[in-house]
Amino acid sequence: MTIIPPNRMKALLRSGESVAGTMLAEFRQPSVMQVLKNAGYDFATIDMEHGVFDYESVADLSRFGRHIGITPLVRVPDKQYPYIARALDVGAQGIMVPRLRSAEDVREVVNVIKYPPFGERGCSLNRGHTDFHGGPLLENMRAANEETLLIVQVETRGALDAIEEIASIAGVDALLIGPTDLSIDLGVAGQLDAPPLIEAINLTLAVCEQHGVAAGIQITNLEWLIHWAERGMRVLSAFSEVALLQRGGTSVTQELARFR
């Protein structure tokens, strides 16, 4: 019997459905996962690239998320082994990797995420990712390889140039557009409607469809997110928990402005 928790987000993507999520940038209290679950989110990405989190916070947020049915992902700061392996060992069910520039970069990441025979991840059961249970080694290595989700961010010209090869790499579950950084790398910083960026997103969608990989995007413009969801994006990530609080709070204070 496997001790690896099922990955709800990966199951939804495998069945062809879309998933909604957001970034966590500041809030380390695990109850934020319950709030997001109550709001209908499928996943939350704990941002270790731009956020404030240490591994203890990642462990607490991930454990709570798994137990209530919202998939915890971690955006690691870099593709190096310790960042990825520790995030998985403390309980993340998926990894998002930024700033990759080649297919070889992606192969290195897959090698870190997967246990043998598909990679070289070091194995330690009885940790957060197994809820501190032990079990048959080979069976649980196989289950972890199946359940762990990999999202490759497309936010560099190099990744875009190699996108066909990247999408064909076994172990890649989704390609996610990072429009801000990609627009900077393409020389159209912040211009969401610039032709080079639009072409890059359309190319990503087409390649993902061809290779059976989910396409996604992280954006702070809801209308733009809906626009791309209508065109086939399935990993739909909008705002952060900070931005959601600010948006909700602003809508209330605007309504109350006439009384102040």
Provide a short characterization of the protein structure.
The protein is of the alpha/beta class and 260 residues long.
How do the helices and strands line up, and which of them pair or pack?
Layout: H1 8-14, E1 19-24, H2 31-38, E2 43-47, H3 55-68, E3 71-75, H4 81-89, E4 94-97, H5 103-113, H6 137-147, E5 149-154, H7 157-161, H8 163-167, E6 174-177, H9 179-185, H10 195-211, E7 214-219, H11 222-229, E8 235-240, H12 241-256
Parallel strand pairs: 1-2, 1-8, 2-3, 3-4, 4-5, 5-6, 6-7, 7-8
Helix pairs in contact: 2-3
Which features would summarize this protein structure in a list?
260 residues, alpha/beta, TIM Barrel, 12 helices, 8 strands
Structure in words:
The protein has an 8-stranded parallel β-barrel, surrounded by 9 helices. It has 12 helices and 8 strands. α11 (222-229) links the parallel β7 and β8 (235-240). It is α/β, with parallel strands linked by helices and 260 residues long. It has a single domain (8-259), classed as Alpha-Beta Barrel (TIM Barrel). The protein is globular, with a radius of gyration of 18 Å. Helix content is 45%, strand content 16%.
Strand runs, count: 8
* Physical arrangement of strands within the biggest beta sheet: 1-2-3-4-5-6-7-8
CATH level-4 homologous superfamily: Phosphoenolpyruvate-binding domains
Q: Helical stretch count? A: 12
**Share of residues in helices:** 40-55%
Count of discrete domains = 1
**pLDDT averaged over residues:** 96
Q: Which structural class should the secondary elements be placed in?
A: alpha/beta
Q: Unreliable segments (pLDDT under 50, ≥5 consecutive)?
A: none
The CATH C-level name is Alpha Beta
Described by strand count, sense and barrel closure, the largest sheet is: 8 strands, parallel, barrel
Determine the N-to-C terminus distance. 61 Å
Do you know the CATH topology?
TIM Barrel
The portion of residues forming beta strands comes to 15-25%
Order of helix and strand elements from N to C terminus: HEHEHEHEHHEHHEHHEHEH
The CATH level-2 architecture is identified as Alpha-Beta Barrel
- Supply Rg: 18 Å
The rough form would be described as: globular
